[in-house]
Predict the 3D structure of the following.
Amino acid sequence: MNWIITENNKPVNLQDIPCLDINDLRKEIIEIKKRVVGFFGDKVFDGVKLYVVLADDEEGKLYISSSFFGADKKSYESITKTLPAFHMFEREFFEQYGIEPLGHPWLKPVRDHKKEYPFFEIKGEEIHQVGVGPIHAGVIEPGHFRFMCNGEKVYDLEIRLGYQNRGVEDLFVQNPTNQLAESVCGDSVIAYNLAYSRAMEALAGIQISNRAQLIRLIALEMERAAIHIGDLGAIAGDTAYQMGAAIFGATRTLVINSLLEICGSRFGRGLIRVGGVNFDISQELAENILKTLEKVGDDVKRTTTTMLKSPTVISRLERTGVVSFENAKALGLVGPAGRASGVELDTRFDFPDKWFLDKDDKKFKAAGDVYSRTRIRYKEIMQSLSLIRKFMKMLPDFEGEALYISCTNALASDKFVVSMTEGWRGEVVQTFITDNDGKITRCKIKDPSFNNWYGLAMAVRNNGISDFPLCNKSFNLSYCGNDL
Amino acid sequence: MITNLINLIILLFAPFLVIGVIKKTKAFWAGRKGVSIWQPLWDFVRLMKKDCVISNTTTWIFRLAPLVIFATTLVAGLFVPMINGQPVINMEGGFILFAYILGFGKFFALISAMDTGSSFEGMGASREACFTTIVEPAFFIIMASLIALTGNYTFQSLSMILEKAGVMGILITLLAVLALVVMLLTECCRVPVDDPTTHLELTMIHEVMILDNSGQDLGLITWAAGIKMVILESLIAALLIPMHLIGFWYSALCYVAALFVIAVFVGTLESCIARLRMSHVFEFIFAMSSFALIILSLTAIRIYGN
């Protein structure tokens, strides 16, 4: 047995995880052809343990294995050479534990700003460099973008991040709370808190009520709808299409204000807690929200249709920032950005979940350009709104159930749990390891941005430099989610 | 004399109102209340009260440029027919001086942008220079055609085509209006050529060239940009209204109405279309050249055809 097979949110015993020689593990990873969702180290008393989590999206299973690096073993042969999706994971592992992947083609710092960062350079008479950031003109997070251009055309973009590194993973080890989970990435409050709470409940062995589960999912879908609507507005704004920017901006407010009515925070802070939820949705509130969301659906539908019929808008969006299916697959893109390139991944439907059964099989023409990333957002807004409707209608069936179960049990000891939640940006993966006292000793977070930033760099190649902001908006990746 | 004075006052102060009307129009279509139409004026006053921050990598060019840009734009404005169809300076061949005075100002804008050493501003300068090379020949072809038709060597020939060229004149006027609208959108950096409201340096054209300017310098440059808007609106108004025939009061009324209507038109256009992709902007500006060539052929037919 080279792998232990488990499911989403199903803890396994640490002892049961096979420990292979790194060369065997490398061969296994390459042969088994699964998608990487976790590749990280953990300090054990006399060396470093490398954990690998692969996802089988067809079967809805997770494959976990590990390898051990003793104090004298400081390198291994890089996997990225064969599987580019490991690119960032290996860089991160190298940065955190100093174990070098030999032959890695792009071994640069991920978040560490104390180390030298050698930017890729193209030299030539006609090549000019444009550096943007880390401080930007808008109210956005810091990140440095280095373009190699020939006139208006971008040959290469290199993105340097890490300015926001707050040491979130260590904070989870020191004092894991819902408030901390909510603060990992400010636009995915629900997704992060949900992933964290589910992992904790799995470790503590509690089963929360159906009503609480439904309220959580309603919030998750509202977050998705709200941010996607905001993104549509931002895409319209970047193309100077004023009508879209104005209407989507106003419509997004309706959605986040509904969240405000549920829990007192427009971003859903304080709604979810380990063991359940803090706020109920009364029958009356549910009806009000449904009424609001109906208007939201109408507005989004009408505005998107008008916008995507406008020739000037289409001309900006179509064939801009293309990421081919092959590239998206190889780089391991996830979430809407991946789906827009035809990588059909959605942890809501791929992994067993009794609430998400009817995966939408309607054909989506995935061209991988900004247009597709705009269309997929529209599609997902509509899907989220109908899911919210469905969940709201199910709420009365579970009337009177407890909102939360107070969770006093200690976490199970010596466990390894992987919790995946499909946030609006893609899969949020949180992995926790407990020691024999049931205390968290290692937390590993993977934001979808961690996979997708490189997709943006690929998308911009051979495009006009003036189309970069539009490509960037169409991905809308997180800086702090990546920097942790 | 009094007409000249009034024209001068309009040239100096209409820019703020014209920009204010455009902003108000955009706000209206976006369903917002919008800022007062006087806001551009207050913004200007606020800027003029401020000091300039000047980067120490720049040279005297950067400090001189705002003054040159403002002065050239204002002087160019004196050649443009306004109320009564009368420019403040009315001279034969004035339009050539007009074009090159504006060109001189633009030259300073470009080298001042390059002077900052910023990679953004260099890109903006290269875009702006490229657009100008397309606009300039088209403008001269149009002016030359109109002069050939009317026999008048001043900007007043704009208002005379309708009476001098008969039915053909209507067609030529329409084409010239279209060409000048393209020129206005290009020179004044409006959608679909440029997006005056964006904060994204990589997509800007005019705005990016003045990123380093602040305080009074910025105030002068925005004022100059507004005057340029009024200049181009005046040229369009002169084409449509036979100002010199209808007397002072009517022409004053028509002129002010034209400024307003064109501003509303620009605002509305900006509200319903997106900005073009940079590579398509050139195609859009080339439309002006095509209009110019059609005008030239029609002129040739009119003069030599019979």
Observations:
- Chain A has two domains: 4-102, 168-483.
